[in-house]
Design goal:
Layout (H helix, E strand, L loop, with lengths): L10 H22 L14 E2 L10 E5 L5 E3 L2 E3 L1 H14 L5 E5 L5 H14 L4 E3 L2 E2 L4
Parallel strand pairs: 1-7, 2-5, 5-6
Antiparallel strand pairs: 2-3, 3-4
Helix pairs in contact: 2-3
Length: 135
């Protein structure tokens, strides 16, 4: 009886839902793309023959090639690091520490940091490395 006149099909009407889905996926991946916090400065870990997987960590100490230090992503001075490590050990003796030192850092500086951590009360420390080439 009352037939409506048919609208002519427009190609733009059919592609609009696809564009919406693409933009939603793009927003999702932009938000979900950054799941871990970045280090406060660039670190190139030393190479290792060990292939063991890393365990869950509680405290990560970073040492840059220029001897800058960071504790769990916050840049920190040596004295403040000693105090922060001692406080964490006082709060929980089961706290595990990992050291992520740049491969270009001077060995004497790394050994000095190890001594500082031992003086602060750290008994076990894991040195984080990456597998060497050809392993």
């Amino acid at each position: 009886m009352f037939a409506r006149p048919r609208r002519p099909k427009n190609d733009d009407d059919r592609i609009l839902p696809l564009i919406n889905v693409v933009f939603l996926l793009m927003i999702f991946f932009m938000l979900a793309g950054r799941l871990s916090a970045a280090d406060p400065f660039k670190i190139e870990p030393t190479r290792s023959a060990s292939t063991g997987a890393a365990e869950p960590q509680e405290a990560v100490i970073l040492m840059g090639a220029d001897s800058r230090l960071a504790l769990d992503g916050d840049v920190i001075e040596e004295d403040a690091l000693r105090a922060a490590v001692a406080k964490r050990l006082a709060d929980s003796a089961a706290t595990r520490f990992r050291l992520k030192a740049d491969g270009q850092a001077e060995a004497t500086k790394v050994v000095g940091l190890l001594e500082l951590l031992r003086e602060a009360g750290v008994e076990k420390l894991r040195l984080m490395t990456v597998p060497g080439e050809g392993q």
